[in-house]
Structures are given as C-alpha cells and as structure tokens.
Amino acid sequence: MAMTPPARDTFCSFCGTAYRDATRYPRTCEGCKTQVWANPIPVSVVLVPVVHERRTGLLVVRRAIEPRKSKLALVGGFLEDHETWQEGGAREIREETGVVVDASKLTSFWFTSTAPRPNRVLLFSVAAPVDGSTLGTYAPNAETSERGLVFGPDGLDDVFAFPLHVEAARRWFAREGVVGEHRYVIA
Ligand SMILES: [Zn+2]
C-alpha cells in the first residue's frame, strides 16, 4: 500500500494549535497568531562547458531515479543553508559527476520559475570551461547512471528530462553560435 506523506504544517510549530485550514499558505495560527509561509525554493543548476576533441559540449548526467528516469539532465540541486548558489552548484557537480569546478568562477546565466507550479526557482549558471581529458573518473551513484556530454541544441527535447534544462542548454548553444542536431557522448 502506498504511504501518504504526512501533511506539512498541519499544526502550529510555535504553540501546537491545529490549523483550521491546512490547504493553503500563508496560514495564521488561531492560538498565537503566528503566520507561516511556503516559499519557492531556489535550485542551483550549473552548465559546465567541456572541451572534447576541439568541440565544446555541456556536461550532463543520465538520471537513475524518477521522475524521468534514464533521461539526461544538467546537474544541480538544492542549497544547504550555509552555501551560496555558487558553492552549492559546485558541490552538486562534484557529488554527481566527480568533476571539480571553481565555485568562484561560476557566472549567472539565466533564472526562471518552474511551471506550471512556480514552487522552484532555477538559477542557471555557467562554469569556466573544463578540458575533457581532466574530468577524472566517474562512478555511477544512487541518482545518476552515466556521465556524458551533449553537443548541439536540436533534438534535446527527446533526450532531456526537463524542458527548462533544454531551454537553458539551447540558450547557451545559441550564445556560443552552435547550431544543428545534438550529439551525445559518454564521458
Ligand atoms: Zn500558534
């Protein structure tokens, strides 16, 4: 039987009073009058240009988990509360791909809210280009089964997990003047 996750914020965390309406935010406690909000969460996503055989591609992973298992994705994740978006983005790249990027060299690129639910804000940045011969070893992990590079913008909808990652990659290839059908290589 499927477990239903416990509902969040059904009781006031300050005084313990049950909320009369726990279906929407903000909620105001009838006991202590404290309001709680649910805010969209930032996600740091890093485009890592990798120079491979005189072409420059973008670093991606193949997802080993749902949603969109076995599709490709750019690498990113939630920030920890002691991290800047640069530090969190660099950490995610290191954890998911084994590639070390300099957090201080990340440049902001594009940000967008998710749709249809705008409960995440994706902060896309670009890392300094990496020489493909220095990527180091990759070990599949719980979340990713493969590390690779994509070259070119066309057809990414068919192989990427998330439309906003496609949009970010397209914007980057357009900026770099790269057109045409994409190619994928395991890296
Ligand atoms: Zn309260």
Can you summarize this structure?
By secondary structure, the chain is α+β, with helices and mostly antiparallel strands.
Textual characterization of the structure:
The strands form 3 sheets. Strands 4, 5, 6, 10, 11 and 12 form a 6-stranded mixed beta sheet that branches. A 4-stranded mixed beta sheet has the order 7-3-9-8, sandwiched between helices. A two-stranded antiparallel sheet has the order 1-2. Helices cover about 15% and strands about 30% of the residues. The model has no long low-confidence stretch (mean pLDDT about 95). It contains 3 helices and 12 strands. The longest helix is centred in the middle third of the chain and has 13 residues, at about 85-95. It has a single domain (about 40-185), classed as Nucleoside Triphosphate Pyrophosphohydrolase. The radius of gyration is 20 Å and the shape is elongated. With about 190 residues, the chain is an alpha+beta fold. Bound molecules: zinc ion. The site of zinc ion has 8 residues, from loops. Zinc ion binds near residues 12, 14 and 34.
Going by CATH, the homologous superfamily would be: Nucleoside Triphosphate Pyrophosphohydrolase
Count of helical segments? 3
Number of domains: 1
Give the name of the CATH architecture.
Alpha-Beta Complex
- Span from first to last CA? 40 Å
Please state roughly what percent of the residues sit in beta strands, choosing from under 5%, 5-15%, 15-25%, 25-35%, 35-45% or over 45%: 25-35%
The percent range for helix content is 10-25%
Structural class per helix/strand content?
alpha+beta
The CATH class, by name, is: Alpha Beta
What overall form do the CA principal axes indicate? elongated
Biggest pleated-sheet summary: 6 strands, mixed
- Average pLDDT value? 94
Order of SSEs, N→C? EEEEEEEHEEEEHHE
Count of distinct strands = 12
